Amino acid sequence: RDGAYAPALVIGTGYGAAVTALRLAEAGVRTLMLETGQLWTRPGRDGKVFCGMLTPDRRSTWFRRRTAAPMASFLWLDVVNRPVEPYAGILDRVDFGSMAVYAGRGVGGGSLVNGGMAVTPRRSYFREVLPRVDAEEMYRRYFPRARAGLRVNGVDRGWFEGTEWYRYSRVAREEAGRAGHGTVFLDNIYDFRYMRREAAGKAPKSALAGELIYGNNHGRMSLDRTYLAAALGTGRVTVAALHRAVAIRPHAGGYVVTVERSDASGRPLGTKEIACRQLFLGGGSLGTTELLLRARETGTLPRLGREIGEGWGPNGNVMTARANLPHHPTGCHQSTVPVLGIDAWDDPRHPVFAEVTPRAGGHRDLDQPLPGDHPQPRARHVHLRPGHGPDGAALGPRAERARGPLGAGVLRPDEPGQRHRLPLRPLRPRTPGVRRRLHLPPARRLRPRPGHRRLRAGEGYRNLYVTDGALVPGSLGVNPFVTITALAERNVERVLRQDVLTGRT
Ligand code: FDA
Fold first, then answer.
1. Would you kindly state where each structural domain of the chain is located, as residue ranges?
2. 368 pLDDT exceeds 70?
3. In 3-state terms, what secondary structure has residue 244?
4. DSSP E strand stretches across 165-315
5. Centroid of ligand 1 to alpha carbon of 452 (angstroms)
6. Of residues 499 and 162, which shows the higher confidence score?
7. How far apart are CA 416 and CA 96, in angstroms?
8. pLDDT digits (tens, 9 = 90+) for 242-265
9. Ligand 1 in contact with 16 (CB < 6 A)?
10. Is residue 163 within 6 Å of ligand 1 at its C-beta?
C-alpha cells in the first residue's frame, strides 16, 4: 500500500465530478480525480480510439464475454451482440436480477457513451421534483451555465429537412402527427457543424458511421473535450484512470479513500490509500450509492442517514421500438444522434415524451435479411412522468395508439422500470464474467437529500459531498445530464463560498 494526499478528492469523472473539479481548480484548489475506467486517448490496431456499434470489439464492453447493447434484439432474436474479450471497455451493464443499469466507464463517464440529448426539464416539473432548490435561480443562472459548459447545440432545421440521415426522424414526425402528437427538436452535445461536414464527405464519419454507445471518434463534445479539458488546463487537476475507490473512512477532519488499481485487462496492480480534506462523490447514481452504502453498512461512516438507499430506481426511461410497413421506409442511412422528440407531455391520461432514435445496434444488421425493404424499427426512449409510471403502464396504451395509422407493431418494451432496492455489488466485479453479491446486511435504497450539498445525519459529515446524478430524487421527465450538470454548478459554487474559500471546513 502506498499513500498520497490531495486537498480535494473527486471520485468519478462524469458530469457532476467534472464540473466540481473545474470549479475547485479555478478557485485555486488542487484536485485529484479518480476514475475506475480508462483514459480513452490511445488508438487501437484499427487506428481508432473507439469501435463502432456494428463491429464491436473488446473496447465496447466493460468486462464481459459478449456485448450487451440496449435494444439488441429484433423479433426477439439477439442479432446485434457479439462475442468480445473481457476488457475495461467503455460501456458497462450492471445486472441486478430484475433490473439492469447501463453506465459509461472511462474519463468522461456517461458523456462518452450516451445519446448526447441535452434537454432542460420543464420548470414546473423541476419544481415538483426538486422543491427545495430555487428554480428561478437554476433557470436564470445554472442551466445556461451548464449548457454553455457542455457546448450544447442544435441541428440546422433546413439541413434536417433535406438530409437522408434524418429521414427516420421525419417519418416518425409524420406518424406522430397522424396519431395527434406534435414533435420538438432536441439539442445535443454532438457538434452538428461537424456532422454536416461528415455528410458532405469533407470529414471522417462518426455519427454517420454507426458510432455512439461505444464512443464517437469525432464530433462528440464529451466531457474530456469540455469541462475536463478546461479543468486539466488549469494545471491544478490530476486524473488517475483505472483507479477505483472502494472504501471511505474519516481521518483528521477529512477522509481517507481506499483505492484499487488495475490494468485494462483487469489485472490488479495493488491498493493505495489517499487522504484528502474535502471529498466529492461523483461516481454516478450507482457508484456513489455503493460507496455510501458500503461506508454505512461496514461502519466507517455509521451516521449516514437511513434514507440513503431509499427510493432508488430508474430514470423513467423505457425503451421500445416500432417497425414500419415497407411502403414507409425510414432509410438505410441513419445518423446515430437523435434530434427529435414526440411531445405528448400534456396528454391528460398518458403523458409521455418519446425520443426518436435510430436503432442502437445499427440498422444494417436489420435490413440485410430484408432486401429491398427498410422496415427499420426506431428505438424510442420514453420518459414517463412519475405518478404515471415509470412502470410501463402509461406507455402501453400510448404505443398501441401510435401504431394505428400505419399498422406498425410494438416490437419489444425493454425492462419496464420499477422501484428497486439497490444491492451492494462485490468489491471486484471486474473478474471477467463474474458478478457476485457482497454478503452484507441488507442494503437500503439511496436518496441523499436532493438539493442538499453536504451529507448530514445526526451531526453530519463535514467535507463530504455528493455531486452527481445520485442527487436527483426521481425521473425529471427528460434526459438528465443537463440537470445533473446544472445542479453540480449550483452546489459547487455554494461549497466554495460557504466551506472552502472561507476555510470553514
Ligand atoms: P456518470 O455516470 O456520468 O460518471 C460516473 C463516473 O464515475 C464513471 O466514469 C464511472 O466509471 C466512475 N466511477 C463510478 N464509481 C467509481 C468508483 N468507485 N471509483 C472511481 N470511479 C468511479 N442522459 C442524457 O441527458 N441524454 C442522453 O441522451 C443520455 N443517453 C444515455 C445513453 C446511455 C447508453 C447511457 C448509459 C446513459 C445515457 N444518459 C443520457 C444518462 C447520462 O449519461 C447520465 O445520467 C450521466 O452520465 C450521469 O452523470 P453522473 O455525473 O451522475 O455520473
1. 9-40+229-249+291-313+421-500, 58-105+152-220+314-410
2. no
3. strand
4. 182-185, 237-241, 243-251, 254-262, 268-281
5. 20
6. 162
7. 14
8. 999 999 999 999 999 999 999 999
9. yes
10. no
Assigned C-alpha cell, 284: 454516478
Q: Which residues are bridge partners to 31 per DSSP? A: 8, 237
CB neighbour burial string for 26-54, b if at least 16 within 10 angstroms, e if fewer: ebebebbbbbbbbebeeeeeeebbbbbbe
Residue 333 a catalytic site member: no
Judge contact between 455 and 466, C-beta under 8 A.
yes
Report the share of the chain in percent with pLDDT over 70: 78
pTM: 0.85
Residue type for 406, please?
Answer: L
Q: Give the distance (Å) from ligand 1 centre to CA of residue 113.
A: 8
Give residue 148's identity as a one-letter amino acid code.
A
Instruction: Give yes or no for a cis peptide into 70 (omega within 30° of 0).
Output: no
Q: Which residue shows C-alpha cell 454536416?
A: 196
* 503 — pLDDT class (breaks 50, 70, 90): low
Are 96 and 420 spatial neighbours (Cβ–Cβ below 8 Å)? yes
Ligand 1 pocket residue status of 15, Cβ below 6 Å: yes
Homologous superfamily assigned to 9-40+229-249+291-313+421-500: FAD/NAD(P)-binding domain (3.50.50.60)
- Find the mean pLDDT for residues 264-292: 96
- Give the pLDDT band (50/70/90) at residue 504: low
Q: Is the distance from CB of 97 to CB of 415 less than 8 angstroms?
A: no
**Could you tell me if the CB of 62 is within 6 A of ligand 1?**
no
Four-way CATH pick for 58-105+152-220+314-410: 3.30.980.10, 3.30.410.10, 3.20.20.70, 3.30.230.70: 3.30.410.10
- Residues belonging to the chain: 505
Q: Whose Cα sits closest to atom 40 in ligand 1?
A: 114
* Buried-exposed string 248-269: b where 16+ CB fall within 10 A, e elsewhere: bebeeebbbbbbbbbeeebeee
Measured between alpha carbons, how far is 363 from 322 in angstroms, rounded to an integer? 13
C-alpha cell at 482: 443537463
